[in-house]
Amino acid sequence: MTCYDLHTHSTASDGSLRPEEVIARAIKHGVDVLALTDHDGTEGISQAELAANDTSLSVIPGVEISVTWGSNTVHIIGLNVDKNNTKLQQGLVEIRDYRKERAVKIAERLEKSGIKGAYEGASQYASPVMLGRVHFAKFLVEAGHAKSIGDVFKRYMVRNKPGYVSGEWASLEQAVTWINGAGGQAVIAHPARYKITATKLRRLVTEFKHLGGAGIEVVSGRQHPEEINNLAKLANDFELLASRGSDFHSPDNTWVELGRIPDLPTNVTPIWQSW
After folding, report:
1. Distance between CA 188 and CA 84 in Å, rounded?
2. Is 70 helix (H, G, I), strand (E, B) or coil?
């Protein structure tokens, strides 16, 4: 059976492995088809494709776009996108420009709380095009301000904490339009992870479907079997395709490994069926 992992990250965003290292690890773990879906950028795709040449692995060009929906941040994955599409790239540049602005604000707030040099410290862990919260988290751990990245997010990066800055990302309509315009398929990433009610999730999926969204991630990273079953039902209720991805970021996160996630339930239509 072909092993698909359609949600992964590299150092082109907030992953810890270079794109070519992601490819090597994916092959080692038996992945046959991998989508590199870095946050708000496609810079790592060419390296991944080059690394996969003359191997058993097929690379799907992808991206994970940050979206503001109501008062929530959600993520929309684009699969099989044309990374050279002008409108997609223009949109991603706008989001990354905002990321830079947010990073400055995070550093300023941390400095007010007594932590100096956060921007420079976080930058040493970041790629040239993306500086995000996880990079600040790595700096704060290394500088002794927290025990772990999880500890950082609890103590510094949530509402009413020193490093919290609310996100103002792309709209759901923009994200789906960019992906579809680039010839790709839009997928709601890890729907069970959002802190919204079941009713709000159905509203999100309704709007997403209306805008031309193609699928939802039925299997992603660590999930309870009941969540997988609920998401499979949601996909079928809205006649959406089902995707599967580990959301791999780092070998240090041993509970989220490339390819090491459950298979899709048999009662859904895989997004790759028409590929």
Report:
1. 22
2. coil
Helices (H), the chain: 19-28, 45-52, 86-112, 118-123, 133-142, 149-155, 172-181, 198-211, 225-237
3-state secondary structure at position 185: strand
Q: Are 186 and 78 in contact (CB under 8 A)?
A: yes
Burial class (CB within 10 angstroms; exposed 0-12, middle 13-18, buried 19+) of 136: buried
- Give 50-102 pLDDT, tens digit per residue: 999 999 999 999 999 999 999 899 999 999 999 999 999 999 999 999 988 98
What distance in Å separates the CA atoms of residue 36 and residue 81, rounded to the nearest whole number? 11
Burial bucket for residue 229 (CB in 10 Å: 0-12, 13-18, 19+): middle
Asked if 109 and 140 touch (Cβ cutoff 8 Å), the reply is: no
Residues 83-107: b if buried by 16+ CB within 10 A, e if exposed: bebeebbebbeebbebbeebbeebb
The encoded tokens of residue 14 equal 């907030």
Cα–Cα distance for residue pair 164/150, rounded to 1 Å: 14
What is the C-alpha separation between 30 and 4, in angstroms, rounded?
Answer: 9
Per-residue pLDDT, averaged over 32-59, amounts to 97
Between 89 and 143, where is the model more confident? 89
